[in-house]
Amino acid sequence: MNKFGLIGIFVAFFCCFSCNSDYTILDPIESISLVADKSVKTVGETITFTVNTNSGTNITEEAIIFVNGTAITGNTFTTTEIGNYTVSADYLGVQSSTLSIRFHDGSETNFVKRVLIEDYTGTWCGNCTRVLNAIELVKAQTENTVLVGIHRSSSNPADANYDPYNFDMSPFESTLINMTGYPKALLNRLTRWAPLEQNNIPQVINLTQGENPKLGVAMNAQVSGSTINLDVNVKFSKDFSNLKLVVYILENGLIYDQENYNVNLYGGVNPIPNFQHDHVLRACITNLFGDEINGNTTTGQMFTRSFSIPVPANIANSNNIEFVAFVTDENNKAINSRKANPGENQDFEEL
User: Is the pTM above the cut of 0.85?
Assistant: First the structure.
C-alpha cells in the first residue's frame, strides 16, 4: 500500500474516532424568548430581562437586548422618563418577540389587600373556640389575612379568668372600641366581626376584595440570639397624611388547656387539653394606637422604621416569633397589614 493509502486510512480512522468521541451535535436554535421580571415599574426602579433558547438554555449574557431599538449594556434597564417602552433581543441573528414595559410615577401601583383580624380571646373563655373555628373557615378560603390572638383578661393565677398569655389592651378597648365581654373579633382594627362569626365568613372575605390599597408593607426580620432587628418599610402609590404604624411581636406554638363550651367543635371536649395557641400577641413595640409616620408619604415614596430590641422576656421560644405590622389612617382603621417570620426579607406585594 502506498503512503497516500495509509494517510487516507489514518484520516478516516481519526474522523470516525473524533466524531464519536469529541463532538456533540447541538440542537438548532430556532427561536429565543425574552422575559422581564416585571412589566410595570416606578421610574428609577430597575427591570431585569432574561433570554432563553427554545430548548431552555439561558443565553442572557450572550444576547443583545434592545430598548426602543437601541442596544443596552447588560440585561437591566431603568429610566427617569414616564412612558411605554418596547424591548427585544437578538442572539446570532435570531430575533425574539417584542414585549412592552412601562415606567410610571408610582400612582399606578396597587398592593395585595390583606384584612387584619384581631381575635380578643382567652384560654378561660369557653365561647372563644367559635372564633378560632371561624378563623379556620376563613383561612380555607383566602390567604389574605393577618391574624393576631389578643389574650385577655387577667394575669393573676388566682382569678377565674386567668390567662397565662394575657396582654393588657384595656387602653385601646376602653378608648376606641368600647366593647365589653369576650369573645370579640375586630376586622381592620375597628369593625366587629358579627357573631356568630362562623356564620359570617363573607364579612371577612369581602374585606379582601374590591379596590386594592395604595399602600404596601414589607419587612426585613432577623432574630439573632437575644436581639431582634426589624425593618418595616411602607410604600405609597397615592398621597397620604396622618398615618400611624403599629408593630406587634407574636408567638406561635404555645401549649395550654382551652375551655370549650361548643359541643360541636373540637370534639366537644372541655377543656381541650394541651391546645396549641398560635399568633399570640406578646409585645407591641410601638404605641398601641400607633406611632406617627413622620416622613414623605406621597406617591412613589417609601418610609422605613428600624427597630433593634431585645427579645421580649415573655417569649417562650424565640424560634416561634412572628411579626405583624400595619398602617392606620386618621380614624385608626387599618389600611393594610403584613406578617413576617424571622429570616424573611420581603418585597412589596405589588400588583
Answer: no
The CA distance from 33 to 167, in Å, is 55
Predicted local confidence at residue 30, as pLDDT: 84
Domain end point (choices 82, 104, 126): 104
Q: Confidence class of residue 323 from pLDDT cuts 50, 70 and 90?
A: very high
Could you give the dihedral angle defined by the CA atoms of residues 294, 295, 300 and 302, in that order, rounded to the nearest 10 degrees?
A: -80
For the stretch 154-172, pLDDT in tens is 999 999 999 999 999 999 9
Q: Are residues 76 and 134 in the same domain?
A: no
For CA atoms 174, 180, 186, 192, the dihedral sign is negative
The number of domains in the chain is 2
- For residue 18, tell me if it sits in a domain: no
Question: 97 and 147: one domain?
Answer: no
Calculate the CA dihedral of residues 13, 15, 20, 26 and round it to 10 degrees.
-170
How many Å apart are CA 211 and CA 145, to the nearest integer? 16
Same domain membership, residue 158 and residue 44: no
Which structural domain range is residue 183 located in? Answer: 115-340
Indicate if 175 and 272 belong to the same structural domain. yes
